[in-house]
Amino acid sequence: MPGINQQGMIPVSNKLRIGGITANSVVDGPGLRTVVFLQGCPRHCPGCHNPDLLDSNGGREVTIEEALAEIRASISPITQGITFSGGDPLLQPEALHQLVVQLKQDFPHLDIWVYTGYKYDEVKHLPVLDLIDVLVDGPFEQDKKDLELAFRGSANQRLIDLPKTRRAGQVVEWQPGW
């Protein structure tokens, strides 16, 4: 696996390092979802929800095609979306972009969510964000942990509606039912 570059992201590759894929999740976005857990995170936030996914060399390396086959197999007629979590999916932005391009072609009716510890302003230039519906941004902060928040762990994290954000030219937070 290539090392992490100066920006903290893994260079271009046609492979992803994943920790696992879960079908039928109801906690990682609205509705029934497939969740793809990508491996690697430089933050090591105290209280991390997925500490097994921190190691960039952990999990398993798969090709984009292998990941697509696993994700396709997890999609059912009542699946509402696909969520990428981790670790931090944006450590692998080019490979994630390749994967999401194909998923959008195969499943245009599904929404795509991505969880990242990066703030939106740090990653808004990444092409993959043009394909994502909701970005959950910001690192987990233990002192801001709030179990009452929908689809995030701490109050500093935002659910950003990326299509509306692009149209408005400023961050627009996602609201249920939009």
UniProtKB/TrEMBL annotation:
Residues 27-178 form the Radical SAM core domain. It catalyses: glycyl-[protein] + reduced [flavodoxin] + S-adenosyl-L-methionine = glycin-2-yl radical-[protein] + semiquinone [flavodoxin] + 5'-deoxyadenosine + L-methionine + H(+). InterPro entries: Aldolase_TIM (IPR013785), NrdG (IPR012837), Organic_radical-activating (IPR034457), Radical_activat_CS (IPR001989), rSAM (IPR007197), rSAM_sf (IPR058240). It holds the Pfam family Fer4_12. Its cofactor is [4Fe-4S] cluster. SUPFAM superfamilies: Radical SAM enzymes. It comes from the Bacteria. The keyword S-adenosyl-L-methionine applies. PROSITE patterns: RADICAL_ACTIVATING, RADICAL_SAM. Keywords: 4Fe-4S, Iron, Iron-sulfur, Metal-binding, Oxidoreductase, S-adenosyl-L-methionine. GO terms for molecular function: 4 iron, 4 sulfur cluster binding; [formate-C-acetyltransferase]-activating enzyme activity; metal ion binding; ribonucleoside-diphosphate reductase activity, thioredoxin disulfide as acceptor. Its EC number is 1.97.1.-. Gene3D superfamilies: Aldolase class I. PANTHER family: ANAEROBIC RIBONUCLEOSIDE-TRIPHOSPHATE REDUCTASE-ACTIVATING PROTEIN, PYRUVATE FORMATE-LYASE-ACTIVATING ENZYME. Belongs to the organic radical-activating enzymes family. Activation of anaerobic ribonucleoside-triphosphate reductase under anaerobic conditions by generation of an organic free radical, using S-adenosylmethionine and reduced flavodoxin as cosubstrates to produce 5'-deoxy-adenosine. This is Anaerobic ribonucleoside-triphosphate reductase-activating protein. It comes from Desulfotomaculum nigrificans (strain DSM 14880 / VKM B-2319 / CO-1-SRB) (Desulfotomaculum carboxydivorans).
